[in-house]
Automatic annotation (TrEMBL):
Source organism of this protein record: Rotaria socialis
Segments for region (Disordered): 321-359
One function term, GO molecular function aspect: GTP binding
Domain G: start-end pairs: 22-134
UniProt-recorded name of the protein: G domain-containing protein
Lineage: Eukaryota, Metazoa, Spiralia, Gnathifera, Rotifera
Biased composition (Low complexity): 333-343
Length: 373
């Protein structure tokens, strides 16, 4: 059984009332599954029932000699009935006194992805960040739980200083242990009614939706870039092309992808949103090109310069390419590279390091809500 862990250990307090907490998260993060585990019953959320908007997925959680109420909410990234779910979420946040706001975030080996998810959720309740406790689900997917837990706690403490605490668990974790850790956090927070006006919540939710849409487009772009990377790496390993030619070919492919993707997706976007997406894609291209160049150089070193037979094979490959309209100058350049045991610094990497491609931070971007007006 995988043990649930908490960043900052707390002693539970005996309260004279039953505290209440709310749980918020994206679809697939394990939010409702956790509620079922805590309530030890076949809990079903009523938040999707159009005839019962006043009812919420809520239940009592027994925690040794203590207990608390947990309120389930609609997934924040529902693709259907988005604004109905937004209304339900706002009502859940403001209807009664709350002690704690739990964010459930699915484990991702790319910690920056979890941080990004945190800030998207925090934008909905930014005034009450001190009440936020992050729960990382699917912890069993970590390949190095002990070290990753410490690294993750340090990163969240640095990037999300307003966050109160952090818990990790998996489906194999004891529901009672998870409930106990949650109660320790809940009992150390005062109950209060969250004051969030309709205008304030609408603005925050619109900003959240814009950010989510941009990230969704960027994720799709990353997947297409990764396909190009994989295809070109395989061609290197098979020696089906010249190394430097592959670098140039790769550069052209990802630039064409960015141009095509931009034309297909940025029309109609607010200029600031468009600039942010383009900046993220340019920054991604610069990073990927540099990483690709490093991989190519490593393969050049191992396949060309460390094995004389590889040198001979490469010369034969060059000769074959030369017979198929390869320029004489290119033939001489490759022969010179093959005979030289000292690997020269990759020109592509130099260009990348000196490039002035803007990063997301350099765009000074902020979310407008004009798309929803």
């Amino acid at each position: 059984m995988i043990q649930a862990l908490i960043k900052q250990k707390l002693d539970s307090k005996q309260l004279l009332y039953e505290p209440c907490a709310i749980i918020i998260g994206k679809s697939g993060a394990g939010k409702t599954t956790l509620v079922k585990k805590l309530c030890n019953e076949n809990h079903e959320s009523n938040t999707g029932n159009s005839n019962k908007q006043q009812e919420y997925g809520r239940c009592h959680v027994d925690c040794y000699e203590h207990g608390f109420t947990i309120v389930d909410t609609p997934a924040t990234d529902c693709s259907k009935e988005v604004y109905k779910h937004a209304v339900l979420l706002k009502e859940s946040l403001t209807k009664e006194k709350l002690n704690t706001i739990f964010f459930i975030i699915k484990y991702d080996g790319r910690f920056e992805k979890m941080i990004e998810n945190y800030f998207q959720l925090e934008s909905l309740v930014s005034k009450y960040a001190s009440k936020i406790v992050v729960i990382i689900s699917y912890w069993d997917q970590s390949k190095d739980p002990e070290n990753e837990f410490n690294e993750m706690c340090e990163l969240f403490a640095e990037e999300c200083p307003n966050m109160s605490n952090l818990i990790v668990y998996s489906e194999q974790s004891s529901g009672a242990d998870v409930a106990n850790l949650m109660y320790n956090c809940i009992s150390n927070m005062d109950e209060e009614v969250l004051v969030i006006t309709d205008e304030e919540f609408t603005l925050n939710f619109n900003l959240y939706e814009i950010e989510r849409s941009i990230n969704k487009l960027f994720d799709q772009y990353q997947k297409q870039v990764n396909l190009i990377v994989q295809k070109n790496i395989e061609s290197i390993e098979e020696k089906s092309d010249l190394f430097r030619t592959i670098i140039d070919k790769f550069k052209v492919e990802i630039e064409e992808l960015m141009e095509h993707y931009s034309e297909a997706n940025v029309n109609g976007m607010h200029p600031l949103d468009r600039d942010k997406l383009l900046a993220k894609m340019k920054n991604e291209n610069a990073t990927i090109r540099k990483e690709f160049a490093v991989k190519v150089r490593a393969l050049m070193s191992s396949n060309l310069f460390n094995d004389e037979r590889s040198v001979a094979e490469t010369k034969n490959m060059v000769a074959s390419v030369n017979s198929s309209d390869m320029k004489k100058d290119d033939q001489q350049e490759i022969n010179q590279n093959c005979n030289n045991k000292n690997t020269e610094q990759n020109d592509e990497e130099k260009n990348l390091e000196s490039s002035n491609l803007p990063t997301v931070e350099q765009t000074n971007w902020r979310c407008p809500c004009s798309l929803f007006q």
